[in-house]
Amino acid sequence: MTELARTPLYAEHVKLGGKMVPFAGFEMPVQYPDGALQEYHFVRGGGAGLFDITHMGQVRVTGAEALAFLQYVTTNDVSLLADGQVQYSALLNDAGTFIDDITTYRISETEYYLCINASNRYKDVAHLQEMATDFDVIVVDESDATTLLALQGAAAQSVLQPLVAADLESIGYYRFAVTRIDGAAGIVSRTGYTGEDGFEIYIPNSAARPVWEKLLANGAKPIGLAARDMLRTEMGYALYGHEISDAVTPVEAKLMWITKLDKGEFIGSGAVMARKEAGPAKKLIALKLTERGIPREHYKVVCDGKVVGEVTSGMHSPAAGGVAIAYVEPAYAGRDDLAVDIRGKAVAAARTTTPFVPSRVRK
Amino acid sequence: MSIPADLKYTKEHEWVRIEGDIATLGISDHAQEALGDIVFVELPEVGRKLAAGEAFAVVESVKAVSDVYAPVGGEVIEVNSALENAPEQVNGEPYGNGWIAKVKMSGESVELMDEAAYATFLEE
Prior knowledge:
The structure holds two protein chains of two kinds.
Chain A: H1 10-15, E1 19-23, E2 26-31, H2 36-44, E3 49-52, E4 57-62, H3 66-73, E5 85-92, E6 98-108, E7 111-116, H4 121-132, E8 138-141, E9 146-152, H5 156-160, E10 176-181, E11 184-189, E12 198-204, H6 208-217, E13 221-222, H7 225-235, H8 269-278, E14 283-289, E15 300-303, E16 306-317, E17 321-328, E18 339-342, E19 345-352
Parallel strand pairs in A: 3-13
Antiparallel strand pairs in A: 1-2, 3-9, 4-7, 4-8, 5-6, 6-7, 9-12, 10-11, 11-12, 14-17, 14-19, 15-16, 15-18, 16-17, 18-19
Chain B: E1 8-9, E2 14-19, E3 22-27, H1 29-35, E4 38-42, E5 49-50, E6 55-61, E7 65-69, E8 72-79, H2 82-85, H3 89-92, E9 101-109, H4 115-123
Antiparallel strand pairs in B: 1-2, 2-3, 3-9, 4-6, 5-8, 6-7, 8-9
């Protein structure tokens, strides 16, 4: 068993009564004493929820061929990015299945910043560094030196602005500023994983504690992993290991909108093209239970008396009830008589669309 | 942590209140605290015959699904239907409005602890 890592804010979480659990190799707060439901309602209800997501990784890509390199290793069209713009994207392998989903930040034509999933960090970095040998680029893993906070909810901007040199109002959705946060050089982007307006804040570890404390003093409340997962699931946002993995391509994961086959060849593009022609091996659908129950990950989707799929993410949404994202056999994706097997009982589910509750990101 | 003296407790953290041949069942304050916010309770059918130790209800928190085991055997004569719309009562009043079911006892039971024994059990 490997030892769990701790973020620079570990002691703060413990001090606040955070219940620490193992997550992606880190000890992270799953909830604070108010509990996951109250934390969820605080973020949805107009507050500013503060998340320590330092477990996520950051990679800086610099060099004359940075754009060509990222065009080759990521799925989205990096040439569409202007300086200060963020793009949701993915890394695929030659089989066209996911190594990871990522965000790409364009700092300049020769400098980009990638945010990657904690659980995929070493795999991603090894892959990127291997691919980089054919390009004039340097790939640097900055994860260990970087603290990442998310501040999410309608009050996020007013809570964050006093600490940030840049004018947050001028940062649009999926845009960022390289700026100073409480005096420390970092990045602030209007991005997130909750469906609320808000920001993600990249700072050096030395600034973690003062920024954390000042945001709390300004009215933010700490939010744990449980509420974070509720918020993202309500939006239908994909999570690696759930909706996306090395077993599915963007065709199955409904992520062709970040997979630009017309930009030229990239890793996995041939396999994705073939999959697109052949049609998805399974279909990702959204379900809402029409009877009482909570659909959970790995529960089976049933129809015609047999298993036709599996829930990848499911929850009890305070606003929408029992909701689930599931992969089902393509032939059953359009059926209106699907059910989720909950402890041996087929609980009826209706097809619906994500987000399960309206998104309030600032577009 | 509340452990009322008039109840008996199980190692699985259920409580039982015995009045004549009727037993009222629920989960302990410790159990609800450990589970966190309870968002769903699956109640047994009235009329169901339970063996002592049998899983008879399910409580689901935001992140976890937990079986509730019958401290005593018997027939379910009443369930707390209010929990269908207000499962959070199990968190708020585990020994009061958070009760789960009432059973007409058959006479069998699992090993039950009194207040002092349960308090010691929790410490261990």
